[in-house]
Sequence to fold (126 residues):
Amino acid sequence: MTGYPWQAIDTPAHKNFLAAYQKNFNDYPRLGSIVGYATLMTAAEAIKKATSLDQEKLVAAMKGLTMDTPIGKITYRAIDHQATMGAYVGRLGIKDGKGVMSSFTFADGAKFLPSDEEVRKMRPAD
Fold:
């Protein structure tokens, strides 16, 4: 199953996110917490790159946008606008009343998206 092993991710970026989250909410983050945070980071990076809130400039800024998040680097592919955000896969359970994930690995989202060739077949040029 997919999940979010918040207590076991040992990177500086994630430690900073975790500390700030716990200080602000007095709780541990869930999968939706980290996905939501990455989403807001994306919006901020797109606006920064576009230097505008103009829709066309934002769309152009998202093509190939690459950014770091607390769970790793994400790229928004120019060819189909899909994010390469990965997922943790492992066993889910409860320990001390909190959701935990054990025996997990990180699956890089880029490895599971269709190739550029496959995308071109699915989305022929106008």
The chain has a mean pLDDT of 93. The chain has four helices and five strands.
